[in-house]
Structure formats: structure tokens, C-alpha cells
Amino acid sequence: MSKFKRTLITTALPYANGPIHIGHLAGVYVPADIYARYLRLKKEDVIMIGGSDEHGVPITIKAKNEGVTPQDIVDRYHEIIKESFQKLGISFDVYSRTSSEIHHETASEFFRKLYETGKLIEKTSEQYFDEENKQFLADRYIIGTCPKCGFEKAYGDQCESCGTSLSPTELINPTSTLSGNQPVLKETKHWYLPLDQYEPWLREWILEGHKEWKPNVYGQVKSWIDGGLQPRAVTRDLDWGVPVPVEGTEGKVLYVWFDAPIGYISATKELTPEWETYWKDPETRMLHFIGKDNIVFHCIIFPAMLKAEGTYNVPENVPANEFLNLENDKISTSRNWAVWLHEYLEEFPGKEDVLKYVLTANAPETKDNDFTWKDFQARNNNELVAVLGNFVNRALVLTQKYYEGVVPAAGELSDFDKETLASISTIKADVEKSLDNFRIREALKNAMDLARLGNKYLADEEPWKVIKTDPERVKTILNVCLQVTANLTICLEPFLPFSMDKLRGFLNLEKMDWERLGDAALLPVGHKVNTPELLFEKIEDSVIETQLQKLENTKKANEMATAKAAPAKENIEFDDFAKMDVRAGTVIECEKVAKTKKLLKLTIDTGIDKRTVVSGIAEYYQPEDLIGKQVSILVNLAPKSLKGIESQGMILCAENADGTLSIVSPDKKVKNGSEIR
Fold it and tell me: Based on the structure, what is the number of domains in the chain?
């Protein structure tokens, strides 16, 4: 690290067609923020770059479905994402967007340089074209039958039923989602980055030169390179994105995978006029914090782009994480199976650090991991509350109780005192080693060891007992505890910034740099500390049950959305149907049937008479809500005794896929007794 004067941290640009969820946070933004805060505490020159990725087909599809423009979509989600990051305390130096003018200029200049220096190859190919809409079709605008499994609504790039990667021409009976017509093949010209030409350089640069990269990153890159690289299109036919800056290319834009990483450069330009220092000075190291779905782009494709351009640094490390699952199921935005950041911030006010702590403690660093609400609760209650919060509270409460909040002078230190204070520097070294090697989860555990150290020291020394026999000794004990507490504000600052700010308020202490960590005299004798509050609070079972129920509701909604109707029953003759006499009637009285959960007793004006019907709909309707409601009633059903009540007919209901019942009613008021045919 000593050969670098500064660090440029980039974070994967979230796609602006939906909010941020915990998978994004665990994979990219929380570890990047921790690392950036750590370097800032060390007084290093570091900037952290972020921004929204606002081009590409999914955004145009969402806009079309909602009847708005793509700009409307990205404006909406960019603001939601940016505000969520700010509230969580993700400390970007700049958070930009790829629809900005500075980005369009930067991406266009980058393409022009590659184009004019002959680094791109031009190829003509046949692609599907919608003749009615007069446009070439992106893969996601084409559906057809999967040649592998027969699924009839496979996309042009992938079958979501069997997971097979496809090309549009492999689909059986392809159809344009724009017009519903069968598209035709038509020639189109595009430019490609010849990745195969960079294969020898990539092999030497990564496989030989960066064996220290995380095994999940190195392994995926090696697999791609060993499999042989192919030219990759950098332009496509679409009307949303950065226009190709070459004459005669109307209707073509830069491929989103090409323009998005250039967003790191344009965002740095937006931040500082000294942007080239961070991108081109060999004494700057660049780190890409990303998820595993972006490894190939940031370790092979973007470096090849930078190498082709010729004046930029390539990344020094790409500490990518794997995926985070939710309650043993893959996070899915389309299925709404996620914990959304903006919703979490509303439902758990003041608990920003709790989420960051849990996501870090359970980070999917080298393999996929699972977030569960029960684990979230346990880590908060058993670690943040019971270890960190408990130690801090006891140390400060005892100081208030015995010394009116004034830091007492330490007497002669025992071996245990010295050992405890010396351990702070050992913990500091452990945290540094872990962070310097991008083992963020391990670093948090090491940092929390300082709270565990303080807790053990306090429990072993028992000042509340010693005060009765040796009050002078208690001064030393509490001085040691307070010095550990003050050191915590530095050690845990990268991980729990809101909480450490709160703790500094308790201690009446200014923020200190990393170099002060390990100092056993951060709080001078006579320093006045403030009356503490609870640093963390327990999360009750009811709070967790609410979140679990929310997910259960999502699961049911997904099942409903994908449920297929029961097959039709056997055919009947018209005469059989004609035997049923179904009339419109109005409920005039309704009450629950005693000692039952499901039954209601209704009195219905059928237009023929007033009759009693017992119906199993009590779980779905309140009696008072049904009075005055028109229903459809089978009036010639033979009477039947239910719970001692003679039921003279049947109310017609529709049974949903989840078993819930809805009364079938006329859509407008009709005369009671009207026949339903």
C-alpha cells in the first residue's frame, strides 16, 4: 500500500428502475463505506464514487408499462436511492447519475477515442426488427417458446423457467412485445470491443499479477479467461441512452454495460477538477466494490476498455462479494422478495447502524449468505445491546454514581489493568490487518472484541462490590473502563458512525483520528462526561413478527399471481344448468352463528320471499358490512340444517387461489328476485 498516495473507491452503480435492498447494501455499499471511513480516519486521501445507472432496456420496458418516459422512471428512482443512501449514512463524496450531461459528454469522448484510434471493430449482423414499430428489438422485447423446456414466454436472452441463456434467434415462434407481431431479421451495423485481443494481457495482469484477489473473484475471472474471450458489442439499436457519436448512427446508443462504468469517471469529473489525478496518476490505486454479478465487467471488460483507451489506471483490487439471500430464498425485485432500504428506514427509525452491523457481521464475502429477521434481532439484542451497549452504560452510570461524571485519576495499575489497556493496540492491529485485506466481516468482529474486552474487565473487577472495601481501587477500574470506552469511539467509527457520534456525546469528546486508537489517556483526569442514555435498545418479538408477516404476505401475493385456475369440470347439458334458479337478493339481517368461526346467519330478501341462509364467510366479512348488500342466491337448493338453523339456499362466492371467498354481486343495483342467467 505504501506505493500509493491516494485511493479511488468506486461502488457499483445501482440500476434506477427500483429502490435499494439489503442485497445491494451487503454486497457493495456497506463494505465500501466502512473501508472509505477507515481510510479517512487514517487521514489518507480517498474519494468514494457512486451514482445511478440510468440507461438500458429494463428502464424502457418499465416506462412503457407505466405509460411514462424513461426519464420519468430514472428521475423517480434516482431520488429514492440517493435519499436512502444519505439517510443510512453511506458517505459518498459524490453521487451522480448516467443521464447527466457530463456523463453523456464523457462517455461520448471515451467512445470517440477508441473509434478514432482503431480499437473497435465494425460488424454487420442480422437482428430482429419490428416492422410495425419500425425499430430493432432488444432481447427483452422478444418472447417465444424456449427450445430447451418448451416454456412459451421465454425472453430473447434467457428462459426464466429453466434458466437457460438464449439468443433471440433460438426462440421458437418469436414475437415482438411491442406489436405482438412476428419480427423479421434485418441487417444492422455495430461496433465491438475485441476482448480476445486483450486476453494475453488480462492473463498476465490478473492471473499472474493479482493472485492476492479474493478467491471468488479470481476464480470467476480465471474461468472466463480460460474459456476464451470473444468480441463484445459496445453499441445497440435503442432510443434511450448515450447516442453513438458517429455520423449516420441515428437510433443507436452506447450499450449500457459500456457506458455505465464510464459513469465512475464522469462522477469524478463532477466532484473535482483534479479528477485526472485519481484516474491517471500511477500513485493512485483504484478499488471497485461490487457484487458477484459484476465481476466480469469490472475485472475483464472495463479494464480492457481502460487499457484500449491507454491513459487510465486499471483497478488494483476488486473486493467483490457474493449474494445475500432473504429467509432462505433468493432476493428478487420482480417478486418483491426483499427488505427495501427506504422502508426499513421508515420502520426502524434511529437503527441505521443496526442494519449496517448485521449486514457486515453476516456479509456474503466469499460465499452466498442468508439474512433472517430472527438473526437480525439476535445480533441486536445479544451483541449490540448486551455487549457493547451494556459495557458503555455500566461504565458511564458508575462514573456518574461514584464521581458525579468526572473522570477519576488512576492509581497504581495491576497486571490485569496493564494487560487490558495493552490489548487495545493489539485489537487495533487486528482490525487494520483485516480491513487492509478487505476482510470486513472479520474486522468488525475484531473491533467488537474491544467491547468484549471492556465487558469482561468490568465483570471481573466488580467495582460495585470493591467500592465497599477499597474505594481508591475503583477509581483505577473506572479510569480503565472509560479509556476503553473512549477508544471504542475510534475503533467502531467506520462500522457504527451514528452510534459512535452518540457515544462521543455521552463522553463529551471530539472525533479523533485512527492514530489515537490505543492511547490509554484519551480522557484526561477531571474530564466531565455527560449522563448517558441507552446506546442501543432491545428489539421485541412483536417487531420481528410484523416483518415476517410482511414477507409471508408477499409470498402469498406471489403465489396468487402465479396460481393457475382449476381445470374446467366435465361438460353438462343446458337443461342441467337451467334447473338452477339463481336470483339477486338483498341482505336485510346478519349475525354470527354462536360457537362457530366460519358461519354467518343471513336473512335475505329474494324478491320471492324473505329467507334464512347460513354461509361459511364469517372469516371474510363482518355482519354489519353485509346488511344492505346485494348477493347472488341459489333459491331452489334443498334446505339443510346447519348448527340447528335451517339454511334455505346458497350464496354464490368466488374462491381465490389462497382459499379466500368473495361474494358474487351484481355490478349495479337490480330488483330483488331478478334472475341471474
Answer: 4
